[in-house]
Automatic annotation (TrEMBL):
Keyword Transferase among UniProt keywords: no
Keyword Oxidoreductase listed: yes
Family: Belongs to the short-chain dehydrogenases/reductases (SDR) family.
Full protein name: Short-chain dehydrogenase
Keywords attached to this entry: Oxidoreductase
An example molecular function term from Gene Ontology annotations: oxidoreductase activity
Length: 310
């Protein structure tokens, strides 16, 4: 592998099944396209089936579309049932879909939109599909976080759903911090099984539709600075792609752009914030997430020990 890891470094994926959430556009589409280009069977798990089919038509290879609305536990359960029926084995589950800086609103189940979609939706989907990955050598769960996990971020157990106050930036930070904590706790629980691993990635600052809900005070600066501080979706997807396919990747690692401030550049191993490694908070978040979603994982808790750090 070269120092500057690129899409061309992706190993042969023939015979592997990959599910990518939010794959009809942006980072998810670029990830799905790259995996299909290497021979994987790729499922675009998307909220809008029509847009998913349009995206699938633009990808050469074995591609299918699965309806999945991460704002609805009912939809997540239905999608998981469909995916389980269609795929006795799953090699890659890429938890990519997300929302960012949304106005205050809730999911169909009453969860704050960013926490409910970015964390709880993927938590539930992973738990419902995990037994399809566990027997598969080399299988991985890759969850996409963000540099936003460092910005005004904390897990607000006293007000997880932001019912008493709401800050869209802080709520996004909570959801992306939760993505990392979920990855680290999942990896701890997977360790005893010796097959599936959990890995996290972030795209730096990528030029996608995700930032369309940015606060007004950020929109103009982002518009002017975009050419200097953002990268295209194909580059932004590389950390996820590397986390999913590089044979050297280990469970509990975190990949992001290698440039200054992890804003852009080729993917490399990066570090997450100190609070993301708080084992007690990780385990508490796991327990609360099981209670909120009603989904229990087919793996037990392991002894408390720090998650792998780069």
């Amino acid at each position: 592998m070269s120092e500057k890891w690129t899409e061309q470094d992706t190993p042969d994926q023939r015979g592997r099944v990959a599910i990518v959430t939010g794959a009809n556009t942006g980072l998810g589409f670029a990830t799905a396209q790259a995996l299909a280009g290497r021979g994987a069977t790729v499922v675009l798990a998307v909220r809008n089936v029509a847009k998913g089919k349009q995206a699938a038509a633009r990808i050469a290879g074995d591609v299918a579309v699965q309806e999945l609305d991460l704002t609805s536990l009912e939809s997540i359960r239905a999608a998981a049932a469909d995916l389980r029926a269609a795929h006795p084995r799953i090699d890659l589950l890429i938890n990519n879909a997300g929302v960012m800086y949304t106005p205050k609103q809730t999911t169909r189940d009453g969860f704050e939109m960013q926490f409910g979609t970015n964390h709880l939706g993927h938590f539930a989907l992973t738990g419902l599909l995990l037994d399809r990955l566990l027997p598969v050598p080399g299988s991985r769960v890759v969850t996409v976080s963000s540099v936003g996990h460092r910005i005004r971020a904390a897990i607000h157990f006293d007000d997880l759903q932001w019912e008493h106050s709401y800050g869209r930036v802080a709520a996004y930070g909570q959801s992306k911090l939760a993505n990392l904590m979920f990855t680290y706790e999942l990896q701890r629980r997977l360790t005893a099984h010796g097959t599936t691993v959990a890995v996290a990635a972030h795209p730096g600052v990528s030029n996608t539709e995700l930032a369309r809900n940015s606060p007004a005070f950020l929109r103009l600066p982002l518009t002017w600075l975009a050419p200097l501080i953002t990268q295209n979706p194909a580059m932004g997807a590389l950390p996820t792609l590397r986390a999913a396919t590089d044979p050297a990747v280990q469970g509990g690692q975190y990949y992001g752009p290698g440039g200054v401030g992890e804003v852009r550049g080729h993917p490399r191993l990066v570090s997450s914030s100190p609070q993301s490694h708080d084992v007690a908070v990780q385990q508490r978040l796991w327990t609360v997430s099981e209670q909120l979603t009603g989904v229990e994982f087919p793996i037990g808790a392991q002894p408390r020990q720090p998650a792998a750090r780069p």
